[in-house]
Each structure stands twice: as C-alpha cells, then as structure tokens.
Automatic annotation (TrEMBL):
This is Integrating conjugative element protein. Residues 1-27 form the signal peptide. Keywords: Signal. The lineage of its organism: Bacteria, Pseudomonadati, Pseudomonadota, Gammaproteobacteria, Pseudomonadales. It comes from the Bacteria.
Length: 183
C-alpha cells in the first residue's frame, strides 16, 4: 500500500501517539481474571468482587407477589365428571404398536360395554398389573361401582383425549400394552 508523502511521515507519529495514549490507560486497569466454568463452581465471588451498585437511571425491578398455595385439599371427586370427547364405547381394531417400557393400561368408561369388559378381564388385568383410566364417568358413585367390579385394580378418572390422539384410538374399552392395542 502506497501512502501519500505527507502521510508517510505522519503515520508513524500517529501510531506512536496512539500506543502511548492507550498504553497508559491499560497499565492502570486491573489485571483480568480468566474464569472457566466446568459446571460446579459458582461465579458469585467474581460478581461480588466487582462491587456493582444499581444504576441510578434505572429503577429497581418491582417485587413480585408470590401466590401461596391453597390450603384446601382436593379429592378425586373434584376431578369429576370426566368427559373424553375423542372417545366413545365401541369396537376398536386390534393392532401392533412398539412402545418399549410402556406399562400396561386400559381405558374404560361408565357404560354397559365397559362394565362387562372389566368383569370378564379383571383377572388378566390384575396379572398384567395394568392401570385403569376411566375416561368417561359422571360421578363418584359411578366410579365406585366400576371399582367394585374389579377390586385390586387401580382405576383413575382421567381424560383420554390426548392419549386417544397419540395412539389413534376412537373407542373403548381397550387394553394398551408395550406391544399392542386390543379389546
């Protein structure tokens, strides 16, 4: 690169002045501390050593009121009624799925078909240690009646809409295992 003759003379002088000006400022600055976070050492001491104060031109963040959890206890009855809009009693085709590790579960409702299905399969469901999801039930009495048909099995009232969408289900009663869906 060719410099104009007057700049050729001035350039070294300007560079020298720049080095002198910044060199003095850098010499007065405290030495830098190199920090490496390997996941377990708090950086708090480094921030504390900076002795930072809040900026005057920015107000402090307002304090947020944290709601306290309700002392009221909720029961299973508070979850009722349960309605699953995507599921209804009916025939569900048997099919194979691949869901390794999935605990056996069954979906039923409070209807004649589900009650009959539960009576016929209670022993098998118990052997499988299957968990029952009652996807359509109106009252605590109806849920208690279903539980009476299969003592020893866990029956929980829960909406089955999400599960129905994920597994492509339209009807119950149905048994879902790690390897298949069947009635």
């Amino acid at each position: 690169m060719k410099l104009h003759p007057p700049l050729r003379i001035a350039a070294p002088s300007l560079f020298g002045l720049l080095c002198l000006a910044t060199g003095g400022a850098l010499a007065d600055a405290p030495s830098l501390i190199v920090v490496e976070d390997r996941g377990g050492v708090s950086a708090l001491p480094y921030y504390q050593s900076l002795n930072l104060r809040p900026r005057q031109d920015q107000p402090l963040a307002p304090s947020l009121a944290v709601p306290h959890p309700s002392q009221q206890r909720f029961s299973e009855t508070d979850m009722l009624p349960v309605r699953s809009g995507r599921l209804s009693p009916g025939e569900e085709p048997r099919r194979v799925i691949q869901a390794p590790g999935l605990r056996p579960m069954f979906l039923i409702g409070d209807d004649d078909r589900s009650r009959q299905w539960l009576r016929e399969r209670a022993a098998i469901l118990g052997e499988l240690n299957a968990v029952g999801l009652v996807v359509n039930v109106a009252s605590a009495d109806a849920l208690a009646t279903l539980r009476g048909l299969a003592p020893g099995l866990t029956l929980s009232p829960v909406s089955g809409d999400d599960l129905a969408e994920r597994l492509g289900l339209r009807h119950y009663p149905v048994l879902v295992t790690a390897t298949g869906i069947e009635q």
